[in-house]
TrEMBL record:
<dbReference type="GO" id="GO:0000502">
    <property type="term" value="C:proteasome complex"/>
</dbReference>
<dbReference type="InterPro" id="IPR001680">
    <property type="entry name" value="WD40_rpt"/>
</dbReference>
<dbReference type="InterPro" id="IPR051179">
    <property type="entry name" value="WD_repeat_multifunction"/>
</dbReference>
<feature type="repeat" description="WD">
    <location>
        <begin position="176"/>
        <end position="217"/>
    </location>
</feature>
<dbReference type="InterPro" id="IPR019775">
    <property type="entry name" value="WD40_repeat_CS"/>
</dbReference>
<dbReference type="InterPro" id="IPR015943">
    <property type="entry name" value="WD40/YVTN_repeat-like_dom_sf"/>
</dbReference>
<dbReference type="Pfam" id="PF00400">
    <property type="entry name" value="WD40"/>
</dbReference>
<keyword id="KW-0853">WD repeat</keyword>
<keyword id="KW-0677">Repeat</keyword>
<protein>
    <recommendedName>
        <fullName>Proteasomal ATPase-associated factor 1</fullName>
    </recommendedName>
</protein>
<dbReference type="InterPro" id="IPR036322">
    <property type="entry name" value="WD40_repeat_dom_sf"/>
</dbReference>
<feature type="repeat" description="WD">
    <location>
        <begin position="219"/>
        <end position="260"/>
    </location>
</feature>
<comment type="similarity">
    <text>Belongs to the WD repeat PAAF1/RPN14 family.</text>
</comment>
<keyword id="KW-0647">Proteasome</keyword>
Length: 439
């Protein structure tokens, strides 16, 4: 099955600033709600094909109450707003969306660290680095986000710096300086004391938080920007992927040359990667997902999956491999037999920018280019035919985490307490409570 066959999942939308009115107590207020049926060949009446409504949000009846009353016009059913979330269901159907507002949001950009060390290592073997444009300090924005289990997070910025911040309030602990261009990818090592980063200057860097954020290593060899990184085991080896079409394996215990080998060399760039055990899955700009065994000295792919359009991201776990494309298509594969797609559909959203499979329930967290972050349960990933029947045993239930209006959400992370973190093009890190499953 392919998304080209016309399978487009339905979507309920709510006015993006609905939560601002609730949070600021600017009530009562009417916000719009609409339904897009997609092209999944549902047995919908003509009246259900293009639905718009106004949702009235009212203040609580009692001063001490935190439950906001709601009402909506025909064709929709809604619940009260509690714990910053509201559920909206299409009447006489199995389609329900739950919308969740952020519990905190902040911009972790200012530099409050007075004694940050700057990496002064020479820039070696970086072709045409002198021609890279400079970054205006008045237009700083994030490119990536990661968090660790010790209460710290990081954002990689387009001015070449990495800000390490407190997950609770955004206070900056360190600012790491050393990349000459955008930091496109950065992540914590399992120890939580080291950071791996890659940038538009073609460099991979390793930083130590125990030594006031100094750069410990600079790995050279790529000839274009670094798009993603993977850490193997406890961090003895790492993988970097690049717009130069290569995936490289580095052994951090080797001296003086850290390069182990080139895993692959493609004609076009690799946008994203995911590692499970010894298998590296690569989301490729030429429209393929390719997998490689990192333990084999062979640059030939162990599998090649042709996808419609450029593949932006891939998520690889024990039983599923999932990829997202520039066209907003999501494909699900069974890792035991990856030569054919198990399920494929198109979201009524913009391009897919990141995929995160949650460890606690096997569900999927997705970010997109239009400001939306949403969650599909493990059961929903397996649904291939959504029927609109009032007696259907399972709801088509989607959770939408309200983000910026029409601004890209770059990626998402989940901490040990199931808090969800996102970072968007507007510069904000947003933190959400994970919505619990509803019956």
């Amino acid at each position: 099955m392919s998304a080209r066959d016309g399978l487009t999942r339905p979507r309920i939308e709510i006015q993006p600033d609905w939560f601002d009115y609730v949070q600021n107590k600017q009530l009562p207020v009417d916000v719009y709600v609409n339904f897009k049926p997609g092209s999944i060949h549902l047995d919908l009446t003509r009246a259900q094909q293009d639905l718009h409504a106004l949702l009235l949000i009212k203040t609580p009846n009692r001063n001490e109450s935190t439950i906001y009353e709601t009402s909506v016009s025909d064709h929709f059913e809604t619940s009260h707003i509690e714990h910053d979330e509201i559920s909206i269901k299409l009447k006489d159907s199995v389609i329900r969306h739950t919308f969740k507002g952020p519990k905190r949001m902040f911009k972790p950009f200012y530099d409050s660290c007075k004694e940050n060390k700057t990496d002064t290592s020479p820039l070696i073997n970086i072709p045409e680095l002198k021609n890279l444009p400079s970054v205006s300090t008045s237009n700083i924005h994030p490119n990536c986000l990661d968090i660790n289990q010790d209460g710290l997070g990081l954002v990689g910025l387009n001015d070449g710096t990495i800000n390490i911040f407190n997950n609770d309030n955004g206070d900056i602990h360190h600012t790491l300086k050393g990349h000459a261009q955008d930091v496109y990818t950065a992540r914590f090592f399992p120890s939580n004391h080291l950071i791996l980063s890659g940038g538009g200057d073609f460099l991979v860097k390793i930083w130590s938080l125990e030594n006031d954020g100094e750069c410990r290593e600079t790995l050279t060899g790529h000839t274009s920007k670094i798009n993603d990184l993977a850490i193997i085991g406890n961090g003895e080896q790492v993988v970097s992927i690049s717009d130069d079409g290569s995936a490289r394996l580095w052994n951090l215990s080797n001296e003086p040359n850290k390069t182990v080998r080139t895993i692959c060399q493609l004609d076009k760039g690799i946008n994203n990667c995911s590692l499970f055990e010894s298998t590296l899955a690569c989301a490729c700009a030429d429209g393929y997902v390719r997998t490689y065994d990192i333990n084999q000295n062979n640059i030939k792919a162990t599998s090649e999956l042709k996808i419609d359009g450029a593949v932006n991201c891939v998520c690889y776990k024990s039983d599923y491999m999932i990829c997202g494309t520039e066209q907003g298509i999501i494909n699900v594969y069974d890792v035991r037999q990856t030569n054919s797609v198990v399920h494929s559909w198109k979201e009524l959203r913009s391009k897919i920018t990141s995929l995160t499979q949650l460890d606690d329930d096997g569900g999927l967290l997705v970010t997109t280019g239009d400001g939306s972050t949403f969650y599909h349960s493990r059961e929903m990933l397996q649904v291939t035919n959504i029927e609109v029947e009032t007696d259907h045993s399972m709801l088509y239930d989607v959770v939408d985490y309200t983000g910026p209006k029409d601004d890209i959400v770059l990626n998402a992370c989940v901490d040990k307490n199931n808090n969800i973190y996102t970072v968007a093009g507007d510069g904000y890190v947003r933190i959400y409570d994970k919505v619990q499953a509803k019956k």
